[in-house]
Amino acid sequence: MSKTCALVTGGADGIGWSICQTLVAQGYLCAVADIDGEKAQARAATLGPGNVALTVDLSDVEAARALPDRARRALGDLHLVVNNAGITDNAGRTIPDMDERKFNEIVTVNLDSVAAICRAGAEVMGPAGRIVNLASGASFRPLPLRGPYSATKAGIVELTRALAREWRGAPFVSAVAPGYIRTPLVEDLIANGRIDPEAVAKGIPRGRLGQSQDIANAVAFLAGPAGAVMNGQCLSVDGGVLAAAGAGYGHRDGQPTTDEPVLVIGEGGLATALASALPGARRVDMSAVRFTSDAPLIVVIDVDAPAWASPLEHLRKLEGARVAGGSTAPVLFVCEEQAEARAEQRALNQAIGMFARTRALEEAERGTRINALIVPQGDTSAVPLAAFLVSEAADYVQAQSINVVAN
Fold first, then answer.
1. Entry's InterPro entries (predicted)?
2. pTM confidence score
3. Sheet arrangement for strand 130-134
4. How many structural domains compose the chain?
5. Which residue segment(s) compose the domain that 130 sits in?
6. Per-residue pLDDT averaged across 161-165, rounded?
7. Is the pLDDT of residue 72 over 70?
8. Which among 96, 113, 222, 363 has the fewest CB atoms less than 10 Å away?
């Protein structure tokens, strides 16, 4: 039986290496593409028979454009492209003071070559292909003295969105925006005293720096068939740091976990579909607002909610009951939205999304992980995404409001 084949750029180290290992564990064959050919060869050998190494310098756009076809020929086929490779400048110079060659290299590697690989990959893979691009928390906030890094990563988010519109889901393309991740580079900075991990963690609602595996988990989800619901979207995997906007947190030791099956709160077809799809899950009506279960929660908001106060009041009571009972299991609020929703309903959904993000920051110190999801009414394609968001694999996804209606 043929295997699913993936190309991962920058695959020999850090996040890219974790992505390769995770994909292979899920049955993929990987082409480990890296500028360090010797390390890529060693990594491919570690992954096992059938995995290959490709040496490439992505500062050469033509080499980047040729990469998907090289991977297809080396693996025998190609189904997934992960654009992970990227570079920055740590010399502490302002943009006018930067060496022009270095400036151009960052733009070429981080944006021009990614665009070239996306288009070449789409041609090689055809409409059934998948592409996952690595953006960054810097896509959404400027990093001074890092040259054009933030600009190129902002470009990745828009490139992903624009290609999704252009291709109309064939192939589908999405992105992941990592936050503070303990890559080998970061570990070196910690060892040299340039980063204080405890001080950094205080500004992260999840209470820790991320691991490469956190990003690999997100990439693996988006790369699969269930990830198509995120076509054109960028999933932030940052422990809530962007939502926190620099606020400090004092976290208790350890992060609580639970083995209890998911509890789905709500009525209607989506709530029923969620309860049916998740192993062991059970469903109760929204009126049950006084429970203190330790189960992960998915709260489905009625699409026909008559007024702002009603669902928000329910949610306030619901969360208050959980806090009083000491529960710290993850919570996901799910709002349905009609295709031609009235302005009031769209406003309500955005309000609930921000409510969830606010609660995520308020309860971060306790270790509670809270997110929101807005989905098309009657569409159950987001059920696997909801399951992912309350799973341990999404432990570093915090204080997000994800709107898949916009696809």
1. Sc_DH/Rdtase_CS, SDR_fam
2. 0.93
3. 52-55, 28-34, 4-9, 80-83, 130-134, 172-178, 234-237
4. 2
5. 4-178
6. 97
7. yes
8. 96
CA angle 353, 356, 361 (to 5 degrees): 130
Domain identity same for 69 and 162:
yes
The answer to whether residues 314 and 172 belong to one domain is no
Active-site residue set: 149
Residue 106 token pair: 């960052």
Question: Would you say 17 and 40 are in contact if contact means Cβ atoms under 8 Å apart?
Answer: no
Is residue 269 in some structural domain? yes
Give yes or no: residues 274 and 374 share one domain. Answer: yes
pLDDT at 181: 95
Band of residue 178 on the pLDDT scale cut at 50, 70, 90: very high
49 pLDDT more than 60: yes
Q: Which two structure tokens, joined as six digits, stand for 351?
A: 């309000």
DSSP-H helix ranges across 76-226: 100-107, 113-125, 149-167, 184-191, 197-201, 212-223
Does 306 reside within a domain? yes
Inside any domain, residue 198? no
DSSP 8-state assignment for residue 210 = B
Q: Give the residue, 214 or 258, on which the prediction is more confident.
A: 214
Give the model's pLDDT for residue 290: 60
Q: Is residue 199 part of a domain?
A: no
CA distances from 38 to 24, 45, 60, 85, 260 (A): 20, 11, 19, 17, 46
Q: How many DSSP H helices and E strands does the chain contain?
A: 14, 13
CATH code for the domain of 174: 3.40.50.720
DSSP code of residue 108: I
Convert the pLDDT of each residue in 110-140 to its tens digit: 999 999 999 999 999 999 999 999 999 989 9
Same domain, 156 and 26: yes
Say how far apart CA 262 and CA 394 lie, in whole Å: 15
**Res 288: pLDDT:** 61
